Amino acid sequence: MKMSGGPGSVNIKIILLILALLIAGGTLLYTQSLVNKLQKKEREIVELYAKGIEYVANSSNPNEDITFLFDNIIKPIDFPLVLTDANDYINIYNRTDIRNIEIDSTFADEELERFINEKVKEMDETHTPIEVTYADSIVLTKIHYGDSEHIKQLRYYPYVQIVIAALFIILGYVGFSNIKRSEQSNIWVGMAKETAHQFGTPISSLMGWLEMLKLNYKDPDKVLDVVEEINNDVEKLNKITYRFSKIGAKPELSKTNVIDELKKVTSYFERRLPQTGRSVDLKIAGDENACAEINPELFEWVIENLIKNALDAIEEKSGSIKMNVLALRKMIEIEITDSGKGIDINRRKDVFRPGYSTKKRGWGLGLSLSKRIIDGYHGGKIFVKNSAPGEGTTFKILLRKC
Questions:
Q1: pLDDT tens figures, 116-141
Q2: CB 328 within 8 A of CB 397
């Protein structure tokens, strides 16, 4: 079992980063396009304003009605605008020449003139002033203008958006990293406890058989029976060692009779269930010739975990665990049904998550390992087929048929 992110997770991070950059770049380009269009529109307004002034200046009728010019062009202007003469001189006393610029009322004349001149320089850096001419040659007025507040806000909007998105990405990455570290820590702790638990069962059994030997060492028949059971537990320890050695490595799969493997596991539990003071009926049914491509040792580990899980779910002193094997066209289907307390529908996906357990002393790794063995090593599927509180649970396993 790999405990660190592999090449796949790195590739996903790179793809997400590229997508984020593309979105940020696209947003920036789109916003800049809108800004350019708005600036062009505002320049057209200023040019129209300039043409209106030129028209009045060049008109042969000094009483020409210019109401239309003021009502439809000048009043709607909402961006900074300053009118100067041909030499950029500003008449600070004519406030109609200065529009949409906030001025401190406490400014003295010199301060006001300096302030307006600085504003004009700033506006000229962004936009070339438009000249109003008389007789197509004499410059009467220069119109200096800047960006409206809408354009300024729109110009900075993508940067604000990128900063906010970056903060979310950083917070998400930190949170994800902490969750991942916590999950890895839980897996390591779970692996240590699972190892202790796996070895604990046969070791406890061996200790019991040793006590039996001490009590019956003069009876050859009983000694032989105890020695046989000790041999079974020693084999069990060897199997456990082999199982853990195969975690992280690619196991060899072989054509195996499924019913025979199920019987090996159930026979081990049947010999030891009476010692627990509980009566649980273990039944196997189905196609006796069902053959699947499996690794017997790892497959037995999965069945053991499912049986242990079922035994823990049976809270009464008696119950049943039924296993049914069905040979389909391309798959072998195994259903394991218990008469336990069942699983809430909202928790079905959580049972395979590392660290999840409904037991007070559980560490929630058995089913997670089982899923890894079936899905990752055997190319099959394991899932909760159906379950309901108080009505038991059915797990289904799908394996490749021989």
A1: 889 889 888 888 888 888 777 788 88
A2: no
> What amino acid is encoded at 175 in this protein?
G
Residue 233 resides in a domain: no
Q: What's the structural domain count of the chain?
A: 2
Asked if residue 258 and residue 392 are part of one domain, the reply reads yes
User: pLDDT tens digits, residue range 176-234?
Assistant: 777 777 766 666 566 666 666 667 667 777 777 777 777 777 777 777 877 877 877 78
Whole domain around residue 307: which residue ranges? 253-400
- Given a contact cutoff of 8 angstroms between Cβ atoms, the answer to whether 347 and 393 are in contact is no
- Beta strand 318-327 with 279-286 is parallel
Tokens 């061996």 appear where?
206
From 147, 169, 194, the end of a domain falls on: 147
Query: What single DSSP character describes residue 128?
Result: P
Whether residue 170 is contained in a domain is answered as: no
Give the rounded percent of residues in the chain with a pLDDT score beyond 90: 15
- Collapsing DSSP to helix, strand or coil, 254 comes out as strand
* pLDDT of 352 strictly over 70: yes
Domain end (from 147, 175, 191) = 147
The torsion angles phi and psi of 64, rounded to 5 degrees, stand at -55, 135
> What count of other Cβ atoms lies within 10 Å of the Cβ of residue 341?
19
- Give the residue from 318, 170, 298, 168 showing the smallest Cα distance to 242: 298
- The reply to whether 286 falls in a domain is yes
Could you tell me which residues come within 8 angstroms of residue 230 by beta carbon, excluding any fewer than 6 positions away? 206, 209, 210
What is the C-alpha separation between 287 and 330, in angstroms, rounded?
A: 14
